[in-house]
Amino acid sequence: MSETLILTGASGFIGSALRKKLSGKMQVFCIDITEPEHTYANEKWSILDVTDKDQLNSWFLQQKKDLPSIKTVIHLAWYYDFSNIVNPQYQRFIDGLRCLLDLTEKHLTEEVRFIYSGSMAALPQTRPGIKLDEKTSLQSSWQYPTSKHEASEVLKKSKIRNQVVELVFAGVYSDACELVPLFNYIENFRKRKFLRFFFPGDPKHGLTYVHLSDACDAIIATMQAQNLVGAGQHTRIFIAEEKPVSYHHIAKTTTSLLHQSFLLVTVPKFVALIGAFFLYLIEKNGFLKPWMIQYADEHYEMDVSKAKQLIGWKPFRSLKSCLPSMLEIARDRPQDWLRANEKRPWRYRN
Predict the structure, then answer these.
(1) Which of 16, 57, 69, 324 is the most exposed, fewest CB within 10 Å of its CB?
(2) pTM score, two decimals?
(3) Total domains present in the chain
(4) Which CB contacts under 8 angstroms, 24+ apart, belong to 13-18?
């Protein structure tokens, strides 16, 4: 294990899967505020808050003798919820990113590659048949993608001498789903909620996804790629499946696998907004919030040719092919389905 890397967010959704793939292959300095469920022999763990500058600075000083062996910094740690309420955590993570970039330049060699996980949510939506690429400007919308947009600006404006690679991920899902919006959409059908019959907007629109295993492979490919970007330069790379999956396809497949009749009625967004408002009054802890209606039929298609060219990566799985087996878990093993998905945080957290 000649190569060593720093991994923040190491006990999270992507971080845990990435550590499993790296087990026995690389030495990993793992950083997270949460204890991991599983650890591997090649890991050295530190439980700390990456938004705390003093903790980060102390960590680098404590690891001083091991720092020359570091080849990569992978920054996955971030905050998100679906409340769309202004939360100081977002600014803390943006400031923490600035600090981590500065400490990378200060303590690590200039050959170290800094890899950051961006989000499709910060991209502007497009139309069917029109793909977004890395030249597309990011935009601010609700709270989480706004923070990712601001983080991308920090990366671009950073003056560190290291290579900075921003991997922009589509919606990352696992065999058991574990993607909050997709899980809640499927739950409407599994629980036979009345609102499953209605869709605000165009159901032929859809999102682009990427399987967790493929996402991890993209990170590893980025670590290993040669001549990826010049020293002191920043580049974005889209990590996604090549085709989006429409809301109509997910609804039709879900009703078929759950042995339900398929019916999907398109309703104007202002009607859906009224309905969402009344649902929110009844069930304030539910996932659906009135603000979500305007984004209900967002459409994203992403050009992944740059990933193929620069890091030799392409997706091997697709949501369309994985969806039937995912739904079988929801139908036949509901306890496993809920156990996997309900641990994914999405509510407002202080």
Answers:
(1) 324
(2) 0.95
(3) 2
(4) 13/172, 13/174, 13/178, 13/212, 13/344, 14/76, 14/117, 14/172, 14/212, 14/215, 14/216, 14/219, 15/76, 15/77, 17/174, 17/212, 17/213, 17/215, 17/216, 18/74, 18/76, 18/216, 18/219, 18/220
